[in-house]
What we know:
The protein has helices spanning 6-23, 35-42, 53-67, 86-98, 109-126, 140-157, 163-166, 184-192, 213-220, 244-254, 309-316, 346-380, 404-417, 444-462, and strands spanning 133-137, 175-179, 200-203, 227-232, 257-261, 286-290, 302-306, 385-387, 395-400, 423-427, 430-436.
Amino acid sequence: MADDRFPPLLERAQAHALDYLQLLPDREVLARASRDELLAALHQPLAARGEPGAAVIDLLAAQAQRGAGACSSPRYFGFVIGGSHPVALATDWLVSTWDQNAGIYVISPLVSVVEEVAGQWLLALFDLPRESSVGFATGCQMANFTCLAAARHAMLRRVGWDVEGDGLYGAPRLNVVASAESHVTIDVALRYLGLGTNAIRRVPADAQGRMYADRLGELLATLEGPTIVCAQAGNVNTGAFDPLRDIAALTRAHGAWLHVDGAFGLWARASRGLRGLADGIELADSWATDAHKWLNVPYDCGVAIVRHADDHRAAMTSTAAYLVQTQGPERDAVDWVPEFSRRARGVPVYATLRALGGEGVEELVDRNCARARQMAEILADEAGVQVLNDVVLNQVLVRFGDDDELTRQVIAGVQQDGTCWLGGTTWHDLAAMRISVSNWATSAEDVAISAAGIVRVFRALRGDGP
């Protein structure tokens, strides 16, 4: 007999969700409530007797408009955060309803097959080697970790060392090379893997953040032993791409493993007009990206892709006597990601890819890049505003009055204004506003309104008036 407690609670949650979504395009992007205000509304000693579920849902929903940043807003330009595409959100509700532990096939054949197909579609979309293995991790942090774990396994295996069995104590030295502009998740992954950040050999980058291939070649010529090279597709500040074809040629000549951090830049491969930015990326040994960025699926979903499936599986797989693991072609997710128990996060990826198709993903990426160029053009027309980067993708770096303090004040003022939300960064020792356009719903009007808000704050701070 069906449990009659579900329908009223789910209907109530749906009503609150629809209210939130309907207000999202026009609401202030800033979360206005302070920690103290939220604690006053939410904190109390844990009661001995619980409250009605409807009351709890109402309480939480009541705080969302003031306490949750509108990260899914079409005017949210911080941290390369995508919004939830409608089909992705609806599918994610199904994922929560099904409540599958997607770790092994026997628990959920449906999720296993869906993720297998989604992985094949991603390889085709990115035009990467079709024999590559795919794992759905929490985000690009753990995708980078997974890929670099496979790299560590492979490179030490080649010199006769079993890192999974014997660890790193007494192991041959493993060289790690990365750009001076590599993302912090590369450093964190290397910490998790026991390789450490002090061991990274840094290669200088140019004014846009692209690794110098010739300097990489000079460094590789001085290194002996197993080597991992980390390149980047989409600099987190400028959106620039390392010269991947040249880097791949150098790493192959040296016998090194090439990993590419493509948290959002890998999605340029879905666009015929942009894929040239990532020329040569298919020659790498592993790739990491996020689906909760440019594919606009709900958090959390990263993707680890490894050309050499045996190395990927050896670095990740777990076994236990009580588990029922596959011996045939069926897919156990524990073979491809660090988690044992895990959410079926690949299902919204499947649904969104199926709903959009390749042309739909291409249009989404192209449209966001067009909106980034629009933002840069509007802001650059304002006297005293400087765009610091070549806007090749979806990232825009902006500086105001050629002054660090004024730039930081504009950023803080825009955040408080609430028209849009964006963050700040330091680029080549200069304070800069960082604008990332990643939301499927961001329109030309959203950009125009947001740019006008930025200019308004800048003029007020400069004393020019509106």
